[in-house]
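Chain X:
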Amino acid sequence: MTYEELMNKAIEVSKNSYSPYSKFSVGACALTESGKIYCGCNFENSSFGMTICAERNAIGSAIADGERKIKAVAIYSPNQDNCLPCGACRQVMHEFSSNDKEFDVIVKNGKELKIYKLIQLLPEGFNL
């Protein structure tokens, strides 16, 4: 699957976002080491701490299916170009990355895709 196709899936799933409070829709699509893809969107709760980001939703779906190694995540928001993951999502990506130096975070910047390495976004991820 190309990163353009991965982004297209993230764009499509962003339409399912449940974000009545922030009005900030996000879709994400995770590519696993085995080649499977898992999509997720953000969903909010009136108890804001219970809100789940699209990236963690997608990765959680992969985990529920038995996957443990993620290679890349495409993130899209119709509300913002270059929509980067929050700190919690970066740490979750680090936890389930096959290699954070090779893990790609793909975002849309205008009509172009911008690719970050996870190590750029979280240079010292927490490990046990």
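Chain Y:
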Amino acid sequence: MSLNDTPSGERLHISFFGRRNVGKSSLVNAVTGQDLAVVSATKGTTTDPVMKAMELLPIGPVMIIDTPGYDDEGELGQLRVRKTRQILNRTDLAVLVADAAAGLLPEDRELIAIFHEKGIPHLIVMNKKDLLDVVPEDTDTCHYVSALHEDGIYSLKEKLARLGAAKEEKRHLVADLIVPGDLVVLVIPIDASAPKGRLILPQQQVIRDILERDAAAVCIKENDLPAMLDRLGTPPSLVITDSQVFGRVSKELPEEIPLTSFSILMARYKGLLDTALYGVGAIDGLKDGDRILIAEGCTHHRQCEDIGTVKIPGWLRQRTGKKLNIVTSSGRDFPEDLSPFSLIIHCGGCMLNEREVRYRMKCAQDQGVPITNYGIAIAFMKGILERSIAPLYRTGINPLSKTSRGPLC
């Protein structure tokens, strides 16, 4: 994926589910117009989820996911079924592929029940309609196709586009917090942990959001903030900083200038903000021996001053004075059993779609484990949490203010 491509976390995730040998992979190939998945008459050909980021007209940027058969057997088969169920946690739109001649079987109905339970919009696609003597009429929820003859594929894509459009809602990282003509200063450290030759994804997305709002973005390094404030003359409408330099920026920035971080904006964008605000208070209740999970949604090369494995653990021990056991996870390796942990601190989740971030949040809630995110945890430990979330509540009550009954009052 090139640097200008839509990131995976911003793509509509369309997953194809069903039993073995119903033609899921053939249908995926027909829908995408590519030989994305291996096709064979042998049951269980698809052994692992196959993912492809692409532009799918008339939908737009999507992530297509082909999954193993849901009726797979044996010990290895059950591992494949488990992977298929995990894909549900990041699925925005589900396609259940069934054999038109066989009709819906118990495994199909089980999947439909899961779609309803998880609130996943879905479409039932009856494949192999070329084997039927009489083809029933399509309905809003059921569509008949022949992947082999590519019959009904275009109308299927149109239905998927309508379902996707109904699910999509316009969300903003920062555009709804500013007005046209505003000046926003972005504090972006360029250190050993910064990616070579580019900005990290949340920084790119914030700049784009500001420009789309017809506002201006000024990007500086942390050393340049005082000089830039003098040069501007008129105070900026908002300062957004990398969380790693939150404490320094807060000290150098006059109180009257609103301040927040990329990570806190991402928590709001991904639907984690309120839960993260409630969870962060658990930091001050940590005890010797407590296990803390620091989770990241992507994998990257660790630097000597890595924020997840070095800086946040150091700030935690400094704040609490306790001997804590730090456990890290990255990418898709988020533990299913969270009960051993006293707290989860998650990254901004820029590489995860909103559904997967909410799934991880729900897992923590269901198991009674507090969860927060990098920016909120750092602001809390630096003593500037109320200031850092105030810009997000300009039109409402700041949940940490003295006039509210917020989580940390």
